[in-house]
Amino acid sequence: MTTNKEDYLKAIYHSGGLNDRATTKAIAEQLGIASASVTEMLARLAREGLILYEPYKGSQLTEKGLRACIGIVRSHELWEVFLVRYLDYSWSEAHEDAEFLEHATTERLAERLDHFLQHPEVCPHGAVIPRPESIPEERKLSPLAFQPVGKAAVIRQVEEEKELLDYLEGLGMKIGSYATVLSFGAYDGPLEILLDGHPVQISRKAAEKIRVEPEA
Predict the structure, then answer these.
(1) Which residue from 7, 61, 77, 127 has the least number of CB within 10 angstroms?
(2) CA 139, CA 123: separation in Å to the nearest integer?
(3) Distances from the Cα of 174 to the Cαs of 34, 111, 209, in angstroms?
(4) What's the pTM?
């Protein structure tokens, strides 16, 4: 399993290819490359039995692909927890360096790291950290941009995207923060929200990439 293949499998995993089909466009965005460059590798992964792939319909991990992918995802997210918690990394810095560390992490090291961190359930930006040989349960979360005005929600996850992570940290957003939409700007304008009781403005594009759970 090459580093490049591992990156593709992880991109499919994070683009919805665990329970559904991930689009080629979404995979390309995860990898930061052009969609046209993705097709050849998807066909190769399908030939190796790692994914189910149909042009124009998308890609989904097979059981074999998931087994190959889950350790990489787990290692990446454990390193993010370590870097943020103990080395004062920002969200985006942790994500960037975990991209390198994940490929050099053995199963033994991942287990020791998990034990040292006292078995965290989510990474710093809210993605569920899979357990060995297990499939994370799908959570029923919805974008902040779709929340009704006046209804409080808890921020549970944000997408792994450097500029987005820096932007949200700059606003003081954390996983577990409370957000209430006060108003929607006209013509795709920004949202005015209460973030842990403080009024802030957030772009609609960012609000679409923040996953929330309605307050109980």
Answers:
(1) 7
(2) 15
(3) 31, 26, 14
(4) 0.88
Q: What 3-state DSSP class applies to 158?
A: strand
Structure tokens that stand for 19 in this block: 């329970």
**Tokens describing residue 82:** 């370590």
Q: What is the dihedral of CA 200, 205, 210, 214, to 10 degrees?
A: 70
Q: In the prediction, which pLDDT does 67 show?
A: 87
d(CA 174, CA 170) in angstroms, rounded, equals 10
Q: Which two tokens stand for residue 37?
A: 């460059």
Q: List all residues 6 or more positions away from 16 whose beta carbon is below 8 Å from its beta carbon.
A: 22, 26
CA distances from 64 to 57, 60, 79 (A): 20, 11, 24
Would strands 51-54 and 58-61 be described as parallel, antiparallel, or unpaired? antiparallel
Separation of alpha carbons 175 and 163, rounded Å: 17
Return the percentage of the chain with pLDDT > 70, whole number.
Answer: 100
